[in-house]
Amino acid sequence: MKKNRHAALAALRPLVAAIGMVSALGVAQAAGYPDQPITLVVPYSAGGGADNAARIIAQGMGEVAGQSVVVENKGGASGSIGAAFVSRSKPDGYTVLFDASAFSINPVLRKLPYDAKKDFVPVSQAVSVPNILVAAPGSAFNNLPDFIKAARANPGKYTFASYGPGSLAQMAAELLKKDADVNVVHVPYKGGAPAIVDVMGGQVDVYFANAASSLNYVSGGKLKALAVSSAKRMPELPNVATVGEAGIKNFDVVEWNGLFLPAGASPEVVAKLQDLVQKALARPDTRDKLAKLGLTPVGSSAADFAKFVDAEQVRWAEVVKANNITVN
Fold first, then answer.
1. Of 94, 131, 206, 251, which is most buried, counting CB atoms within 10 Å of its CB?
2. Where, by residue number, does the polypeptide cross the bilayer (predicted)?
3. Nearest to 131 by CA among 248, 244, 234
4. pLDDT digits (tens, 9 = 90+) for 61-101
5. Which residues of 30-67 are buried (b: 16+ CB within 10 A; e: fewer)?
């Protein structure tokens, strides 16, 4: 028995040593982190809601860390192209995914070149933000009831934009279609910026735009706000009713942005990055800039963010099934 026990322990020693080496390496990597520039990969086009939020937060992170934090746009396929790029990156904390609600929607709608649960480590939810249902300044619609009335009278005539198939902008509109019993045609774009341009020009009738990318245009009179998607009115738009106030009960859709690292990132690096994000979001200048875009800072822990992302995926899976939503 003693010999067998000694043999078993001897066999385990290399494994224990290897685990110790990996742990020591993670601690060593985290000790000086960050000691080189960090890249935030935004998987959407420049000028969209996620991009605007990322650039503000990146600046705050850079000030806290004393290192450059660079935003790199890799748009397409509702965020899955940029996400796939990060999933294949070295898990050292220097290539970070800055994604949106589509991160939890994509897995229930399409085949992906990555596993959203296995190939990423959630770090922190950065912000939350309502979407604003917008139209061109010269639109005949002044509020959501105007649009619903016209859409019911003319099935299939009116259009809604999104920043890609399966995006939260599409999902919010699909919910509105179902709950308001209207037939409106989806026009997908590769990002929020080109969608906004076409809505401004009247090529598309309405768009559930992220407030971070549209609030300035609404305030400047370049877009008309018909409703907001959250359960409560936005403080920045006190005269714009919620979708719920317009008669669509229990409608509450809020977009979020958060940071993820590739799987394999050490717990020490995850903790360091989480701390960096939280300190950046605590800065008054960062909070002021975010507030001007209608963004609410969150700065959750990695553990809480992981639970939140899982719950979001369950929620949207139910919506996709109930509304028979598919993407090509």
1. 131
2. none
3. 234
4. 999 999 999 999 999 888 999 999 999 999 999 999 999 99
5. beebbeeebbbbbbbbbbbbbbbbbbbbbbbbbebbeb
